[in-house]
Amino acid sequence: MSIHIDIVTAERLVFSEDADIVLVPGIEGEMGILPHHAPLMTMIRPGEILVRKGTEEFSMAISGGFLEVKPDHITILADAAERADEIDIARAEAAKKRAEERLSSRTAAEVSGALAEAALRRALIRLKVAQKRRQRRTVI
Ligand code: ATP
User: Fold this and answer.
1) pTM, two decimal places
2) How far is the CA of 52 from the centre of ligand 1 (A)?
3) Which of 17, 49, 63, 113 has a 20 to 30 A CA-CA distance from 56?
4) pLDDT value of position 140
């Protein structure tokens, strides 16, 4: 028994596989979705998506989006999404540094550093997903 998951952005199909369970960063916390889940539509937060199938595990970074669950099919419409093997670590490190610099040079007069905070969050998620894959490969 499995559930199919498609992760799509405006530009491309990022991931399409059958899964035993899918872990998604829901607006109200982590959600585990199994086959025959009740139909559902909700927003998702920036974070990591984990897909488990047998002994395999796939990890993806997602910058938020929309989740639709049907009993045998999950669709995630993502603002941006990358599989762990696609993440450019140097690019994410540079984005993290830029966002940190923007946040630290913020003056008290500036109302919000929300854009820099969001950019920092995206970079940290990408680094986490990519580094986890690296560690796993080292073990193997
Ligand atoms: P940057 O400042 O490096 O562009 P960003 O967080 O502003 O990062 P996004 O706007 O979230 O980037 O994404 C723009 C596009 O670039 C998307 O297609 C996304 O998948 C891709 N992308 C962003 N960062 C990376 C990365 N480190 N590795 C691979 N693809 C990335």
Assistant:
1) 0.90
2) 25
3) 63
4) 47
